[in-house]
Amino acid sequence: MRRPHIRSVAVAVAVTTAATGLAGTAFAGPTKGVERSAASAATNATVVVEAARTAAFAHTSATGISKGDELQAQDVMIDPEGARHVRFVRTHNGMPVLGGDLVVHLDRQLAYAGVTSAAAHAVKPATTEAKLTAEQAATKAAKVAKGDAGSAELVVDARGGAAALAYQVTVTDDGSSSTVVIDALTGKVRSNTPDADEFLSPKLLDEMRKQGETADPATGTASAAAGLLGSGVSGATGYPATAHGTGKTLFVGSVGLTTTATSRGHYQLKDPSRYGTETRDAKGSYTEKFSAGTKFTNTTNVWGNGTTSNRASAAADAQYGITKTLDFYKSTFGRKGIANNSKAAQGMVHWGKKVANAFWDPTCNCMLYGDGDGQMFKKPLVVLDVTGHELTHGVVDATAKLEPTYVDSDGNQYGEPGALNESLADIFGSNVEFYAKNTKDTPDYLIGEKLGLAQKFLRRLDHPSLDKLEGTIDYWAPSTYDTEVHAGSGVSSHAYYLLAEGSGRKTINGVTYNSPTYNHATVKGIGRTKATAIFYRALTRYMVSTTDFHDARVATLKAAKDLYGANSTEYKTVDQAWAAVNVTAANTPAPRH
C-alpha cells in the first residue's frame, strides 16, 4: 500500500534552472539513447528546461500557468526519437502548490507539443491572507494525526478542483509520520495522509482477522548451489573491494550476492556494483534513519541459513530483491536507481516489533521489512514481488507522484490515482519476477503468491476479481473513484495483462490464466516486453499526481504512438485492452481536477 508523501512538493521554492540533479535524469527512457558526458547532459538539460518553462508561460490556456506561478524542473527526459519532456512542480507567490505538477512536452526543435497537468484550472487562491495562525494549524494537525507537529507552512492546495490557501504540517509519532493539510481560512482538515508506504492495507488485515486467515509461507529452500558458496574477491589490490558471496534466503534458495570485502576475510552486505545498495538490521527499532540500522557483516561471505533462526536470512532475501529490482529497471529502461540518480537503494529488515507489513518509506528513502506479527503473518515479508512492488512506489514517487483522493480514519486509501499507483506497483513487481527468472519463485502474473495465503495469491493481473480478500474489481464503473485503492487497482492491472497476453485461457510457466473482458471481445496480446515499455513510458512521460484510469488510457495511447506509431497494432491493442475493462473515450467522466 502506498501512503504518499505530499510534503515532497514543498521543495519547490527555487526556480533557478541549475543543472544540478538533472544530469542523471536527462536521458531516461525505455529505449537506450546515445551515451553522453555528464557535463553535456547537464548543458542539454538546462536548455530543454528553459525552453519548456518558456513554452508553459506562452501557452497559459493549456498549461494553466498564471501570474505569480513559478516552475521548478524535477525531471528531464529526452527520447531517442527527439521528443523532450520536462516535469515541473509549481509555486504560487512563493508557496508550494499541492497538485500543481505538470509535464511540458516539446518536439525535437524544442517547440511546444502539449502538456499533461495535474490541475485543469488556475491555482490562484481567492486570498493569500490566512485566518488561522501557523501555531493554530500545527496544534490542530497534531490533534488530528495524534503526534508531535512540526512547523506549519503555507501552501496552495490545488487538488480536487480547488485553489485554497492552506497549511501543510508534518506530524510524527513513534517512528511514523503523517502529512496534514489544514485550510488556512476555515480550519478544515483537507487531508491527513500517512507518509510510509505499506504493502498490506488496514482493510485487508481486518478482513484476514475476520476470516481467520493466516500466512505461514514455506521457507528453508536454501540448499547449497554449485558455484555459489565462497568468498571470492574480484582482483582486489586494496580495501574496500568487490566480493562475490552467497545468500541463503528464506524464499528464493541460495543466490549469488555481490558484497563488499572491508578487509581480508571480512565482508559487509553492501553492493558496490549497484551504487552501494545495502541492507541493514533495524533490530526491532522503529527508526526511519537508515544510518541507525546495524550493518550486516561476517567472515564467510555467506548470508543466512534459509531459516528465520539466522537474522541474515531475511537480509539475503531483501538484498537479492532490491538488487534484482534495480537490475530490472536499468536493463529494461536504462533507469539508474529508483530515482534515476545513480544512488543506492536501501533496506532494513527486522523493523519494529511484530510488524506484519513491508514499507517503502520516503523519509528513510528505503525499504522497511517487518518480521510478521507471529499470528496472521508468521514470516518476514521479504518475498521478491513484495520488494519489486514497494520499490516501484519509489519510482512512482520520483515521477508521477500518483496520490489517493482521500484517506479514511483507519488509514485506508481511496481514489483512482492511488489505485493506478497500486496497479503499476503490481505490474512492475511481477516484471521483476520475470526478469529474475528464479526457479524457486516462478515468474507469474500473481502478486504475493509466496505469502502462504489460502487463496494462493494476494492479487492477480489476469482476473483480478478472483482475489476475494480485498474484493479487487475487473472493470471500471463510476463507483471506482470511491473504491479502496488495492481493490480498484484491478482495472489497470487487468488492462495491462490483456495488452500483454490477451484474453482467454492459457498456461504460462505452469500457471493457468483465463482473462475475461467486459465487452466479451477477444483481445490478442502484443507481448509482455512491449506492454511493459508502453506502461513505463506512460508513467514517466504522461502521468501526473491526479491521473485516473481514463487519463491512463490516454497516456498509454500516447506512449504506444511514440514507440510504435498511431497506425500500429500496438496502438490499436492498447485501445482494445482498455475497452475490455470498460475504459473508453465515450464513458470518460467530467474532470475532477
UniProtKB/TrEMBL annotation:
It comes from the Bacteria. The active site is at 390, 486 (proton donor). This is Neutral metalloproteinase. Residues 245-396 form the Peptidase M4 domain. Residues 69-109 form the FTP domain. It comes from Streptomyces griseochromogenes. Pfam families: FTP, PepSY, Peptidase_M4, Peptidase_M4_C. The keyword Secreted applies.
